[in-house]
Amino acid sequence: xEAIDLLLSRRSCSVKAMVEPGPSExxxxxxxxxxxxxxxxxxxxxxxxxxxxxxxxxMLGELCASVAKQRDPSLGETEVELERLRPSRSPLLLxxxxxxERDHRIPVSEQVLSGGAVCQNLLxxxxxxxxVGQWLTQWPTTDDTIRAALGHPEGVKTIGWIHxxxxxxxxxxxxxxxxxxxxxNWPPEP
Length: 190
Ligand SMILES: Cc1cc2nc3c(=O)[nH]c(=O)nc-3n(C[C@H](O)[C@H](O)[C@H](O)COP(=O)(O)O)c2cc1C
Prior knowledge:
- By secondary structure, this protein is of the alpha+beta class.
- The protein is 40% helix and 16% strand.
- It is built from seven helices and five strands.
- Strands 1, 2, 3, 4 and 5 form a five-stranded antiparallel sheet that branches.
- It starts with a helix and ends in an 8-residue tail after the last helix.
- The structure holds flavin mononucleotide.
- Flavin mononucleotide binds next to strand 4.
């Protein structure tokens, strides 16, 4: 597919509709390499990516289940089980976090935006290789116990959990903002 067609056809796939296989080792290498090839004012590389494969996803799932139960002791077995399965719903999980340099001449907001570009590039590379992806920021991405277990230093924020896999049914297109509503000329036509 032409690059422009890839850009015009990327669509998120619900993690609930993801199945095996995930990318091979060499495909993952390409996804990660494309992922970090982003605009980065000051060349700070203010982002990190953790690759969480099946064994890690299951460990993380155990943690999600126990933390969810601590947060809400009224959770039933089915809900706790859903939490246990949360990280392993896709064949592969990438956790993208920031590493902001707060006292730098490059504003923190620009460093954060660069991290967003990492997530988008990961999704585009995933799509280019024929896989599907979804960018999520659900409760475990901000939970302190989970953050600490993942080894995230104090103050580090999660930019996204990027789930990657295959799907049996291509996601339907969603309603999109239209160029005419978003884009204008300047100066405006008289
Ligand atoms: C920073 C960020 C966080 C997101 N977190 C969630 C989330 O937690 N749950 C969710 O259903 N969608 C979330 N989304 C939206 C999906 O990733 C996806 O963009 C959306 O379903 C629209 O699909 P599209 O990518 O095909 O436009 C998030 C998107 C962004 C940019």
